[in-house]
Every structure is written in structure tokens, then in C-alpha cells.
Write a structure and sequence with these properties.
The complex is a heterodimer of chains A (143) and B (137). With 143 residues, chain A is mainly alpha-helical. In chain A, 75% of the residues lie in helices and 0% in strands. Classes of the chains: A mainly alpha (143), B mainly alpha (137). The A-B interface holds A 1-3, 6, 9-10, 13-14, 16-17, 20-21, 23-25, 27-28, 30-32, 49-50, 53-54, 57 and B 48, 52-53, 56, 64-65, 93, 100, 109-110, 112-113, 115-117, 119-120, 123-124, 127, 130-131, 134-137.
Chain lengths: 143, 137
């Protein structure tokens, strides 16, 4: 597993744990209202689990297992992948700050950063959605 | 494919059918003369925890690099505990949330708390179990 995927998967696991912790707090608060301010965790619960956990995990695993190029860099430009990871996590940190500090104005840069992260992620994986070298050889042999 | 992965994947496939079925039921409620509230969060959690997350957990336990030659998939006890806790918690929530919406009896409210704790423990056990397997080869 490349170092990038180790970072991506571990970050995803952390978001999974934090996201589900927020979910558990919200569920307990639904049953026995502890404090109305706890509902501010709801958008974070959703973003941490959808983006921090699922999107980040899919990206990190895809970077690891998608077909590689024949020449270096075999997994494409690593700078693109790292930039996507940084943008994604910065956006989540900004969303957390927006929710916890009750500053809705911070939502816009956070969402903008998510668009940038998504674009970088797509650019990083685009060229690797291709036949494997074995698959290519088999197709050529069949022709 | 190890038994724990098969269990996670088969359970996740059942949740997919269940979630889709619940979505149909929600649409049909007015025609059936029913008004059961609290079903939307149940639908989202059956879909995202039952189907998506459980599929990820099952495939992850199978696919991540080996923990060691002796214990390639880490602790089997932790993995199975995670499976049972997640499913117990999720199904309990699916029953307790609409029931508590209709009649907030203490039993249903405590069932929600129990479901939250069970699902949280499942996630914690899963993360602790796979964490050492996320490594460079």
C-alpha cells in the first residue's frame, strides 16, 4: 500500500470514528434531550461520514488499486493526489469550525474547497481508469 | 473470502433491499392510510450504515494488508463483535425510532441509547482492529 493510501485510509477511519461518535451523541440527545446546541453536530455528522469517511476511503483505496502506468510515476502525479487530500481535509476542518463556532459564512469557502478537492481527486484518478497491462496484452492478442 | 467478510457483505446486501423497500413503503404510506413518522432517518441509516459502511467493513477486513502471518486479519473476536454490535444496534434503531416517535415510552428511548452505544462500539472495535493493517508494504 503506498504511503498516500496509508494516510488517506487512516484519516478516513478517524472521520468514521468521530462521525459515528457525533451520531451516537445525537441519537442519545434525541431520546433524552441533553442540550439544544448539540444539534449543531448534525451537519458535521453527515459531512464527516459522507466525505471524510466514504469519499476519502474510496479515493485512498482507488489510488492504491487502480491500474498503474508502465512508466514512473506509476500512480500518476503524486502532487495531485496529495493536494486533493489536503483540500478535502481543510474543507472538513473549515466546516467543523463553521458549525462549532456558529459562523455560517465559513461554509462558502469550505464548500468551495470541497469542489477543488473533488476536481483534484478526479484529475488524479482519471488516467488510471484504464485497462491493466495484462488486459491490454490480452485484447491485443485477441485482435 | 473469509467468513467474516461473507457475513458483512451478505448482511449489507440485505440492508440494501431493506432500505429500498422502506423507501417504497414511505411513498405508499398515504395510500395505505398510514402515517408512521421517524422513518426517514431509519432509511438513511439502513442505506449508509447497513449497506455502504458494512460493505466497506467486510471488504476492508478481506482486502487490507495482512496483520501478521499467524493472524492475517487481526482479531477475529473483535471483527465478529463489531459485526454483531453493528447489526444489533442498527436493527434496534430501525424499530425504536419510529416506535419512540409514535409513543415516547421510556423503553423505546432507552433502546435508542442502547442502539447508539452498540453502533459506536462496533465502529471503535473495527477501527482498532484494522488500524495496524493500514501500513506500507
Amino acid at each position: 500500500m503506498p504511503r498516500f493510501s496509508v494516510w488517506g485510509i487512516r484519516l478516513a477511519l478517524l472521520y468514521f470514528l468521530v462521525g459515528i461518535t457525533f451520531g451516537a451523541i445525537l441519537l442519545v440527545n434525541k431520546a433524552f434531550p441533553l442540550h439544544p446546541a448539540l444539534w449543531a453536530l448534525l451537519p458535521l455528522h453527515i459531512d464527516f461520514l459522507l466525505t471524510g469517511w466514504i469519499v476519502q476511503l474510496v479515493f485512498a483505496v482507488a489510488y492504491w488499486i487502480f491500474p498503474r502506468f508502465r512508466s514512473e510515476p506509476k500512480r500518476g502525479r503524486p502532487q495531485l493526489a496529495w493536494a486533493a487530500l489536503v483540500a478535502l481535509n481543510l474543507s472538513l476542518a473549515l466546516l467543523a469550525a463553521a458549525s462549532l463556532a456558529l459562523e455560517p459564512a465559513w461554509q462558502l469557502p469550505a464548500r468551495g474547497l470541497q469542489v477543488v478537492a473533488a476536481g483534484l481527486l478526479a484529475a488524479s484518478l482519471w488516467g488510471r481508469a484504464k485497462p491493466t497491462e495484462t488486459g491490454k496484452a490480452l485484447a491485443e492478442a485477441a485482435d | 473470502m473469509p467468513p467474516i467478510t461473507r457475513a458483512f457483505i451478505k448482511a449489507s446486501l440485505l440492508y440494501l433491499v431493506l432500505a429500498m423497500g422502506l423507501a417504497v413503503f414511505q411513498v405508499l404510506q398515504p395510500w395505505l392510510g398510514l402515517n408512521i413518522s421517524g422513518l426517514s432517518p431509519v432509511y438513511f441509516h439502513l442505506f449508509l450504515v447497513g449497506w455502504v459502511t458494512q460493505m466497506i467493513m467486510g471488504v476492508g477486513l478481506w482486502f487490507f494488508p495482512k496483520y501478521s502471518q499467524q493472524r492475517p486479519r487481526g482479531s477475529q473476536t473483535a471483527a465478529w463483535a463489531s459485526f454483531w454490535l453493528l447489526n444489533f444496534g442498527l436493527l434496534l434503531r430501525a424499530m425504536a425510532e419510529p416506535a419512540a416517535s409514535a409513543q415516547p415510552a421510556a423503553g423505546w428511548l432507552w433502546a435508542l441509547v442502547l442502539s447508539a452505544v452498540a453502533q459506536w462500539l462496533a465502529a471503535l472495535l473495527f477501527v482498532l482492529n484494522v488500524w495496524p493493517r493500514i501500513k506500507e508494504r
